[in-house]
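dude i think i finally got it to work??
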Amino acid sequence: MKKIKDQYEREAIKELKEKLEIRDSNFDVKEGHIIELHLDDCGLKEIPKTLENFPFLQKLYFDTDPVKDLYYTPDNEISKIENLDNLTELTDLTFCFNRITKLEGLKNLTNLRYLNLLNNKVTKIEGLENSSEMINLNLMSNNIKKLEGLENLTKLERLYINGNKIKRIEGLENLSQLQILNLDSNKISKIENLDKAPNLKILHLGKNKIRKIENLEKLSQVDDLELSMNQIPKIEGLSNFIILRRLWLDSNKIKEIEGLDNLSQLETIALSRNPITKIEGLDKLSNLNTLFLYGNQIKRIEGLNKLSQLKRLDLANCRISKIEGLDKLTKLQSLSLIGNQITEIEGLEKLSELKKLFLIGNKIKKIQGLENLTELKELSLNGNQIMKIEGLEILSKLKQLNLYKNQITRIEGLENLFELNYIRLNENPLNEEDQKIKKKMAKELVEICRKRKLETLVREVDILKAQMNMKGLKLADYQHLEKEIEELYKKIKDFS
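look at this
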């Protein structure tokens, strides 16, 4: 047992152990005193009065884990903050996933720096008058309707109040040190009253009712701006965001890509699920490495020639019929053209660094045009009209290949793919011989696993068998199956 000097602390921790079945791992001792205590998932309905006997306590946790998939532990259901008056050294206090309705019982906790009430039932921000040392406040997913009660939190740097019912941005006048403000998933209709927070670096206002990007002129330090899932029709008001690195504008009403010329430091921009019809207005974004445009009405790949640093491009679920306009994207590593109207694999010759290519759900009939993609590791062509596995010989680094739901009748063309460890071929009209090969391979895999008592692997193989996904095998060389399996399992712990 950890050595505790104070008699009252020893008796108190003994009582907690008996009542709550906690272990030594639930608390930490320093210089003979308990300084950290975890009472997570202890089935608490209220805060134990015995905690008053831990005056040196610095960190106290009452969280409930909402996902208990390995073992059952009773939820905490604390509804009131109480019995903490003696814990004047407390710096960290959390009540995640409890039932607290009111911010109270904190007046003596003048050293509190971190308070987390994620997913409770708080309706009002109050009781923080003596919390001037607070740096991090999390009130995410409560029932708060108004931003108030923050006047004395002059040192606050991080405020998370997303998932509430706030209609207006206000009450932030004294938060000059604020660096992170998360107001996602509220009912805000206007951006306002942020002038007194000039040090903001991360501003999240996604999933609100905002109709215009405005009143952000003083926020020149912001490098992450989230405005997705609003009602914004136009990109504007961002000219002062000269160090902005990430901009999120998914699911708005934007029709035209514009207003980005001053954002030379931008690295990521998300404009997915808008009514955009043309790729344009990106020429000044010389540092852009990630571009999300999926779910738009774009018919042609164009306007990308100046994006020489681009590494990830997502144009899924648009209306594209031809792969083109990618010649200058020589550093591209991931390309998604899922759910378009593409009939031919072409225009990829200059993408020598490409590692992931997703062409799911198009109208492709033949695997071709991949000769220069020597770095490719993942290729997804499921949901097309492909009849033959071919054109893959040069892809020596390919690890994952998805070809399910095509018109393939034979397993072939995989002989040189020595790195391949995942292939999916289900929902293809394989001929009788190849169906037998797959069934034989699956059966032998299971038998070898059982002989070696690798129960965990047997379960995995059963799943793979059902999905017709043979892991780590050269399908065309099935007669050496047993040897290959033995080699595959050398790195796996033997449970026998």
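Helices lie at 7-20, 432-451, 455-467, 481-488.
im so relieved honestly
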